[in-house]
């Protein structure tokens, strides 16, 4: 955009801001345009200041403004300094920013050194008074440092600056002044030791040096012992949160990680307001930064964090600090009705009868300010809390005798206006009718029966399909002795299309049983039966229509996939036409010679394309057998959903997850044919709340080739901007450690379609992300399905061979993806390695290197067989580098995890990610429904580290219990081995020894073995029985 167009856009934005001053996006656009203009620094400053009149501003923008202020103000005058200090104060009241606080400290120290330091360069002007004096500087630094002390990992940046200044001032003192300042410094250091922070060891070292230099020698040891006791609690406090801090860094400070951290703090038995407040400040600042950048969901997160912060300060803080937080909150999130409501209730709580009039004015002003932003009126859930808070205040005033008839009229007017705002905000209004119920109760208590009935009459007329509005209207008529009017209403409405017609019918029948004659009861039941048949017929047609649409979509998808497969096969046939003769040799090496005759026949009569064969039934067709269930009540349980869908077919799994907009669930069926029937449950009710049921088809992505370091938080942060993520599923690595893919399931197909834009993007050099719509019928196309065909096994290597030697040799036949060479403790090759290619044909070509001479050794090259690796890994008697047998070595490196989450299918991949943040993991296996898992770690030291870990390890909301693994012990060994195989030993390792030919009888323990004792035979070693020997003899 050229300068002229930018100026035009800037003028348009200013006009829009004058009309909509609380439109956040307009202010962000104004700042962006002003920043892009060269030589328009004044306009940029004006844009920031204009935004600060309506919203809180981020620390980075304030820093830019302050730099411009420093350049333009005369800091040698009182007016210039006062204006700059006011800007600092105003900036720090918006969001906590360590760089901003650091800049403030640097300015204060610069001015102190300039006027009052030991090397002052010029006299301080008289107009400055106490400004920049030693006492002023100490107080100012303390106030600034206090604002950032809740930041566990960065607060030391500010505190260290004050520490250095305090010690510098101390060194310049002498006599009694030195003793006085030493006492201040000692209190300053001890206070810091009481606070949890990341570099507590450095603080303690500073205190030790201070004690050595400024305290008598005989006091050194007692002072250090006392300081150790003081800091012990703070050290433990930080260590408990170190894992959460690491998770924040690893997720790049995602809002999801902050939410998890906040939830962790809220679950603490004795919450620490210093830490909790600091955490909320950091989360709020991060959410505000992302909101300014236009990130989806940041506004909702910002509101949520402010609400939680306000509640925390109300619970654990004092009234003055709560008032300050509330004022900051409404400035940062003026579109949050919950924040405004909390502000109103706070003003009401701190008021007393002597000053009730001023409180009334304050509440009225705050209420008008909330509505004056015109931000709440567009969202029902933001209007209702504010209206209820103001109405509650007026109601309690009236009940306490502080109000009059005007107060009662005001109460009625507030509720009526609130109801009108709700209905204008959304055509569906408030499905719970909260304001109507509140006003109805006011009318009932006041004895205004006509007003009450009119209220429900107009409500039922507005909410035409709401069963709740209609039944509340009829209840009001019945309770006020107007049964005839209620009967007329039932007769008029029972044919209408309500969201829950059964509720209307039941209410009518119940009414007639109590108020009607036998004839009236029969008439009602007959009318209901007629309309019931019509409703059922309509629902059946809707289900049939949904079934046809679903079948059509599935057929179109299948045709598209078949055409793609056929085209791919055609292309491959053209590309590989000259390579046909090399295929048999590869197959011969790979699988032996048992089917050679069939291969020869195949050459004469080519087989048909696989697309013409009947595909084997899928073991699990999750993507096509699942429906989403939305708008669920918070109290919903799995049994509720199973009861609702039980007549649709066999239910395979149900998963319920809380989402920002409410609870959402997936119901997975055993077959696709169950889906049409499940879709008929749309608009049904659970706990009297209407639910929504829709297809989960094409809402799941298959993602692979992401960075090695990517974890669950990384994937959620990367894909979360395209839509609401319902679940992320990770594969188990117990059978293959190199598996690196996952499934991301959105709550709607639109999110999945939007996320396809990430396909092909490089997040690491030469590594393009693969993002595809998940389809179980195309599992063979996935990167890990044919991974074994891309990997070769190399044996007979010289111990001096390096990974670079192997890569250089095997890259002659294609691009090598990975080289994994087994090494001993000294780092030398143990004689074998695995080479993984990016393409299967390159791995097949590399088989030509079999018997190749490398470093004076002939190497053996074959296709990798994962079963052979598993057999080698599971040999109980194989020696290991630790000097132990295989089984004993695995036992020494394994731990057992207890108390896994019960309400969902625990993912082994997620559990492995959680533990890998602490120690290296070889494999994880969950033991059926026992809520336990066995984890094999890299070393025995890692197992000890995990067992002795003082901090609780959380997973899925549960605190895990870690014990030693019981492999090989009599208790529970056989049960675990026989049920789930979760002990990482083969089944034969726990079976009883058999007697008979080929097996050596176990010697009694009391008989000592002599040097002439016979050794086990070869037959015993391989586990052969009598039938094996009979077959050998013919």
TrEMBL record:
Low complexity: bias regions: 1010-1022
Pfam family, one: RRM_1
Keywords: mRNA processing, mRNA splicing, Nucleus, Repeat, RNA-binding
Gene Ontology biological process terms from the UniProt entry: mRNA processing; RNA splicing
GO MF terms held by the record: RNA binding
Database matches in SUPFAM superfamilies: RNA-binding domain, RBD (SSF54928), TPR-like (SSF48452)
InterPro entries: HAT, Nucleotide-bd_a/b_plait_sf, Prp24_RRM1, RBD_domain_sf, RRM_dom, TPR-like_helical_dom_sf
Gene3D superfamilies in the record: 3.30.70.330, Tetratricopeptide repeat domain
Ranges of biased composition (kind: Polar residues): 1023-1034
Residues annotated as domain RRM: 625-698, 699-776, 790-866
GO CC, one annotated term: U6 snRNP
Main location: nucleus
Basic and acidic residues composition-biased segments: 874-891
Regions that span the bilayer: none
Organism superkingdom: Eukaryota
Subcellular location: Nucleus
Chain spans, region Disordered: 572-618, 864-891, 978-1034
Function: Functions as a recycling factor of the spliceosome, a machinery that forms on each precursor-messenger RNA (pre-mRNA) and catalyzes the removal of introns. Chaperones the re-annealing of U4 and U6 snRNAs (small nuclear RNAs) released from previous rounds of splicing, an initial step in reforming the U4/U6-U5 tri-snRNP (small nuclear ribonucleoprotein) that can reassemble into another spliceosome complex; this step involves binding U6 and facilitating the unwinding of the U6 internal stem loop, followed by base-pairing of U6 to U4.
PANTHER family in UniProt: EUKARYOTIC TRANSLATION INITIATION FACTOR 3 SUBUNIT G (PTHR10352)
Stated name of the protein: U4/U6 snRNA-associated-splicing factor PRP24
Native source organism of the sequence: Armillaria solidipes
